[in-house]
Amino acid sequence: MTVDAPEASDVQKRVDEAGASRSRPAGMNRRSLIKVGAGAAGGLGLFGPSALPLISRRSAAAQGDTLKFWQFYAPGGQVESQAAWFENTVAGWNEQNDKQVELVYVPNSDYMDGTKLPTAFASGQGPDLFIISPGDFLRYYNGGVLQDLTPFMEQEAIDDFFPDVLASRVVDDKVFGLPMEVEPMAMYYSLAAWEEAGLTDSDIPQTWEQLLEVGQRLTNDQRFGVLFETNPGYYQNFTWYPFMWQGGAEIQVPESNKSGMRDPGAVEALKFWQDAVNLGVSPRTVLGGGAWDVVPNLTTGYCAIQNVGIWAISALQENAPDFEYGIFKLPVPEGGQYSTDLGGWAFVANSQGQDPETAAQFVVWALGTMSEDSIQRGVDWCTKAKSDMAPRQSVQELATEQGGFDSGPLKQFAEEILPGGRGEPRVTPEIYKSISDAIQAAQLNGTDPEQAAEQAATEIEAFLATYTGAPIL
């Protein structure tokens, strides 16, 4: 069975219509909340088979007295408020429960595009708890290492998540991950660079062509006009998808095993990124941790415009509070339709860890109950520790009541940028790799975009012909 990518317009609709009736994912029965007291090797290679080898023994990393929680925020992450949120969350659990949780910090670059996490699982030493994006969900689900959270959740709490946000973490009506955020992409620009180039609000680009023209005006011998991600990885794919969607193309043609990568919309999206580099408007390399890392790229003057997500608001506030910037929606091709990619990370539990049930209970306790503490925890993450849209209606409502979206960039994201967005696709490592290769070939290696797209489509179709894992979304 194939399923096309989920639309996320319902997120905005339900934000605007707070209190409207909630739709229950088909087939889900009410569950009573269980109250809790007291690289790359084998099938887990970064680009290896989508199904991980089932691990018959308990994770060696989890043999100690604590449940190990791998993530890239704490302790010692780049943003102090986010590290504190994780530390406070774990401390709250540890105060109430005999089974303790321990945070294990993994640098973002190693976590997202490195081999540390896949290699740990391949060797039977995966963490008890970790975070994953929709783009990497199927690697771990198909490998049989994600614990079903559904038995530990109340149906009311399941229904509280926006359906199209939760969809990429659900298989056969069972929930295998709880999202902590929704993260739309946009374009950030330096007001100083903008004014220096003699640009005004009327020059904010609406189309790809206009963006390249403005980018040329902003480019000089010290600065690039526009920055897109150049490092291969799930994040680069994530940032490229909206440009493909805007032209009407899809990774997979709905209800078929055909790929839309050879469609004109995908070819033109590859060409757009290639043109930006060939014109000298965009760099071939990025600074800091990558194009997700706004401070070393935008605030230093390395670029004037940066394609980055909503999380950059909190990063700028904490690490460059005096930097003045503006935000605008992703431009579209001539005749195209606006879209942006709504990403976000989710807590998951390792079904092969030392205590999968307690790990699942921690995930639900932290992010998935209807308690005041759980809801406020979500508000604190989305509007205080970080800058995100909420994945749950109750969290979005309370954050709105508390003024989190009343003004400034978060208001702009809620009203202008989020509507029209789509959930990040859920794909296998094989499909991800084919798309990544096409982006790299066109953007940096000078390959004809049509040829790169055709190669990706051919590879994806060959894979889909024999794929038997959970549905691609």
CATH top level assignment of the largest domain = Alpha Beta
Provide the gyration radius in Å. 21 Å
Count of the separate structural domains: 2
* Mean pLDDT across every amino acid position: 88
Report the helical percentage. Answer: 40-55%
Structural class: alpha/beta
What is the terminal-to-terminal distance? 11 Å
Binned strand content: 5-15%
Sheet having the most strands? 5 strands, mixed
How would the global form be characterised? Answer: globular
CATH superfamily of the largest domain: Periplasmic binding protein-like II
Strand order within the widest beta sheet: 2-1-3-12-6
Number of helices: 19
Query: Which stretches are low in confidence, meaning pLDDT under 50 for 5 or more residues running?
Result: 1-63
Total E-strand runs: 13
The CATH architecture of the largest domain is: 3-Layer(aba) Sandwich
CATH structural fold name of the largest domain: D-Maltodextrin-Binding Protein, domain 2
TL;DR of this structure?
This protein is an alpha/beta fold and about 475 residues long. It has helices at about 10-15, 80-95, 110-115, 115-120, 135-140, 155-160, 165, 190-195, 210-220, 235-245, 265-280, 295-300, 310-320, 355-365, 370-385, 395-400, 410-415, 430-445, 450-465, and strands at about 65-70, 100-105, 130, 170, 175, 180, 185-190, 225, 305-310, 325-330, 340, 345-350, 420-425.
Can you describe this structure?
By secondary structure, the chain is of the alpha/beta class. The protein has 2 domains: 12-182 and 344-405, Periplasmic binding protein-like II (D-Maltodextrin-Binding Protein, domain 2), CATH 3.40.190.10; 185-339 and 427-464, Periplasmic binding protein-like II (D-Maltodextrin-Binding Protein, domain 2). Helices cover 40% and strands 11% of the residues. It has 19 helices and 13 strands. It has helices at 9-16, 80-96, 108-113, 116-122, 137-142, 155-160, 163-166, 191-196, 208-218, 234-246, 264-278, 294-299, 312-319, 356-367, 372-385, 393-401, 408-417, 429-445, 449-464, and strands at 66-71, 100-105, 129-132, 170-171, 174-175, 178-179, 185-190, 224-227, 303-309, 325-328, 341-342, 346-349, 422-423. The protein has a 5-stranded mixed sheet with strand order 2-1-3-12-6. The chain has a 4-stranded mixed sheet with strand order 8-9-7-10, sandwiched between helices. Residues 1-63 have low confidence and may be disordered.
